[in-house]
Every structure is written in C-alpha cells, then in structure tokens.
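Teaching note: in complex prediction, the entire set of molecules is handled at once rather than each chain in isolation. The prompt given to students was simply: 'Predict the structure of this complex.' The entities are:
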Amino acid sequence: MTRDEIYVKLNEVFQDVFDDEDISVNDSTTADDIEDWDSLEHINLIVAVERAFGIKFSMGETTSMKNVGAMVDIIAERAG
Amino acid sequence: MLELQYPYDADYILRKKKSIKKSLLAREGVNYVNKKIAVLGGSTTSNIVLMLELFLLDNGIKAEFYESEYNKFWEDAVFGNPELDEFAPDLVIFHTTSRNITRWPTVKDPADAVNAMAEAEFNRFRQAWEAVSGKFHCTVIQNNFEQPFYRLMGNSDVSDIHGRLNYINRLNQMFYEYAQTHETFYIHDANYQASVYGIKRWADLADWYRYKYAMAVSAIPDFAFSLSHIIKAVYGKNKKALTMDLDNTLWGGIVGDDGPENIKIGQEDAVSELYSEFQEYLKAHKDLGILLTVNSKNDEENAIAGLSRPDSVLKPDDFLVIKANWDTKDRNLVATAKEINIGVDSLVFVDDNPAERAIVRGSVDGSTVPEVGAPETYIDVIDSNGFFEVTGISEEDLKRNEMYKANLERQHVQDSFADYGEYLTSLEMHAEILPFSPMYMARIAELTNKSNQFNLTTKRCSLADIEKIAADPSFITLYGKLTDKFGDNGVVSVAFGHIDGKIADIDLWLMSCRVLKRDMECAMMDEFVRLAVERGITTVIGHYYPTAKNKMVKDFFADRGFKLVEEDGEGNRLYELDISGGYENTNRYIKVN
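The expected output is the structure of the full assembly:
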C-alpha cells in the first residue's frame, strides 16, 4: 500500500469515528487539530484503524505516536 | 435498526457509533421510556455506556447515565456520593469483573480459610448491592465473574479449591443464590459472553494496561448488547410473539409443490432432524408465554396438512393465529397483530427468504425481522438477539397462550349476540379488585411499563417503585383481576393515587386493552371511590397527559362524570370529581370480590 492509498482509507476512518465528513488528515495532524480527539476517542480511533487495516499496534506504539504521520509509518510497514 | 441486530458487525458499530446514534434519534413516532442508569465500574466504563446507549435507544429506552470514577464502584455504593444521590438512579449496574476480586486463595490456604475468603468477598459485593437498593429503591444488575485467561493449576484449576477457576465458580454460585431470592436483582452473564467471544481474546492485556478496559475493546458491543437485553426486559420492552413462515423455515421443502408427505421434518435424514430441533426450540417458547403464529404464502389446507404430520413437533393447535393465504406478508403481519391485539412491534417475523424479509422490514414500521441466515443458524440468530429475555417467570407468562386463545373465542361468541349487554352478561365476569399485594407486584410493574393506549398518565414504575407505593399508607392502590367463563385474564388494570387532606389525586390509571368494553374500568372506579369515601375523601382528582398512543382515553374522566378544571396548551387535562354528596356505582356486569 502506498502512503496515498493509506490516507484515502485512513481519512474514512477518521470521518466515521468523529462523524465529520470534512476531516482530512496529513502527516502533521495531531489530537490538537481535531476537536473531539480526546483520550476516549483515541481508543476508538486506534481500534478502528487496526480493524480497517488488519493490523495491531503494539502497546508502546499506541502511546508514543506523535502525529498521524507516525501512525501511517507503522501502517505502511505492517499492512500488506 | 438492522445494524444493531444480531448478527451485527461489532467493529462497524464501534466505528460508526456517532452516526448510528444520530439516526436512532431521528426516527419518528418512537414512544421512549426515560430511565436514569448509574454504571458503577471496577474498570473503564466509557465505551460500555456509549454502546449500551445505542442498544437501549434501539429498544425505545432513552437513558441518562451516571458513571462512577475509575474503580470507585464500591465507594460510590457504600459511602454514597452527592452527585449520585442527586442523580437518583432507576437502575444501578455494577460493572465489575474478575479483575476486581481482592482476595485469591493460594495453595497454602486450608479449606476453611478459602471458605472464609469467599464469604468475605461475597459480603463485600452484597454490601454494595444493598446500600444502593436501600437508598434508591432501584433495580440492580451485577456482572458475574468471567473465567480467567490462564490456569496456574492446569486442569485442576477448576476442581481444586485453590484454583482461581474453582474460586470464581464458587463466587458466581453465591451471586446466583442471592439473585434467586431478590426480585429486583439480576445477574448479567458476562462469563457466557466472554466464553462465546473466546476467553483469551476477551482478556486483551494490551487493552487492559493501556485503557483499563477489562475486556477487549472490540468485545464491548457484545457485552453491551447482552446487558441491554436485561434492561429492556425489566422495562417491558420484550417481544411477545414469533410469527413464522412455513416452507423452508419450519420445514425443508415446499408443501404446496412437494406434498405434505415429502417435506423435510422428523428424524429421517439430517435436514429433517435440523428442522425438528428448530421446531422444538420454538415450541419451548410457548412455556415462557411467547405466542406463536404463522404467516405464510400457502393454501391454508396445505399449511395445516404440513403441520399435521405425525412427526411434526409443532401442531396447528400450537399457533394462536394461522395466516396461510396469498396476501402479502406485511399485510398479514399487521392483521395478525391487530387480531391478537398487540403492537406490531411486539412480533418477531421469521422467514428464510431475504426478499420477503426486506419487504416486511421496509413496509411495516417498527417490525422486527432478523437476518436468520441458513437453517443451521436460525436458533442462534433468534436466541442471541434476546428478544424474549426472561427476567422472572410470572403466572401470567405461563398462562398467556391460553388467555389469548380465550380472547379469540370471546370474539366469536360476541358476534353471535345482537345485544352487547346480553353478551357481557353471558360472560359471567368476576373481578378481584384489591390493594396491591406482593403476589402481583411484578405484574403490576410490568403493566405500568407496557401499557400505552389505555393509560391516562403513562407513568412508568419499576418493581421497587411499586413496592414503595404499596407500603406507603398515603396512597390508595388497586389492581384488578378479571375472570370470565372462558378463562382468567389475570391482572388487567392498575390504579393508584396519593391522598392529600380531603383530596385523592390519581397518579396512574391504566388498563390492558384485552379487556376493553367489558365494564372493568367502571368496576375499578367504583372501588376506588368506595375506598376514598372510607378515608374521608371529598374530591378525586384525575389527570390526562396526552401521548402519541393514548388518545382513546382522552375523555375517560369526563365519561366517569368528572368535571374538566383546566387544560393547558399541550392538551394536559386536570379533572375533578366531587364525591362529598355521594357516588352512584357504574359497573353493571361484573361481580366484584
């Protein structure tokens, strides 16, 4: 999967989880950029991303991802 | 909503929860019951509440939630908390898991020490249950403990008193014994849900250590779905009937084409055996008070011939209504509901044909048509949806099928009388109209939650509320039980009012529609007024609060001789009846007490 392909799918996940069709994320997006992205929604987001790409983040990764770019790095590495 | 029916996609529900909630709330004409639910957790509860909210909305329950601070279930319950006190829950859920067991046996502990440990652990929970039920008179739901994901002692873990699995089973058994003797206390079988999901996947250590969820986040929809079944059953939102298609649903093959001798039922081959087990499963529902009916595109003669095979488990007589004709299934479904006088939303329609299911779902508002799949999944789909969740079996449930049957017979007799009064006389009716008594309180609470049409104030009461009112001397309470020559209708009417000086103010007045136009409401009013006079009351006050469903009683008090005192812009009416100068009884056909 290319980064562009990942972003197409990832944006759908973000749009569903935050129920906002206007959301578009990029490498530098962080929780501060999306109003509803709190610790509770972070959990739902992680689970939804894992399911959408058929991958699993490790415990360490879940807490250390600094921005969406870091998330996409992991997806790119793991998703077939 | 189909997305929230089993088999659902749990990940989809988690991901789309916000838009699902929006579309649930956008539905029109839903008659919601409002409830306050406190979730006292021993682990994180946020997503559990969000999922539970969706499933409850889907069942017509609008819940407001209180959540305890993380792992403060015991402190909130036992020591109280001003926020929780103010919230005054109708229902308290103790969301605890095996993670919340404080003392575990070790192999060094002698048997009496293990016993004492289990006793102490149980008492800690009991103290929490009794603190909230004493303070709030609320319903209590408690998870049982799920099996641990590892077994230190291997296979002995289950049989040795030092094993964790043995210990959990013992604590669970103590919980069950408590549930068996406490009516408003229910066990949520989280242990079963964990087993179905897979104990090892359920105990997701990453989700526990990251988020302190005691189960995998992906398992939360299953957990909440199962929990919602108890709640909707407690608040009277269970389904009442199974409406069955015949060909390839109750048996294999098409009776009209293949002939009754060639359909697949009985023990002759694998497919026949499969359908026989399904029929056994359906038949067992009759004992729980669930009604069975047929809705099939067939000549009636063929349908009866199929059901009359000697090896058919279900016989024509097991069905309250058989609609086997060439009318559309949606119209048959609506007609069935009307004939047995229950809401069409109380029927579960089962059909093997996806196209028929889609048509019925699309054209009958509020219909429930599960995606039953192939014959080998019929039982699982019907069962896992919890349509008929049992929270206690009343005598009413056991007799329900007979009662509805008697009702249909009454209708036939009624047609043969020219004069309605003569018909009523012929019914030889007897009523028992008395203050709330312990034997009927569960039924009384059930009626306050189920009755929509003949219900003046639509006040919903839990069993705990009813018990409280019954014990309070400042209330006049009445239940009415009606028997006639065709059978016992059970408790069909409930009323209570509070006394304030010389005034009795009627808080609730309802009647089951199955005894409409039988003079039962007259007999109830006569008795209410008689008790009021006995207590020196001079004025009876009545209220009518309009809802989408109770128009039929808008003039109820006027018809009983009450005077309209005021009506506000929303149609809420206040009536008054002066009984200082006497009262003339109005019931003519029922012998009372």
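Point out the following to students. The radius of gyration of chain B is 26 Å. Residues 341 and 514 of chain B are 7 Å apart (CA to CA).
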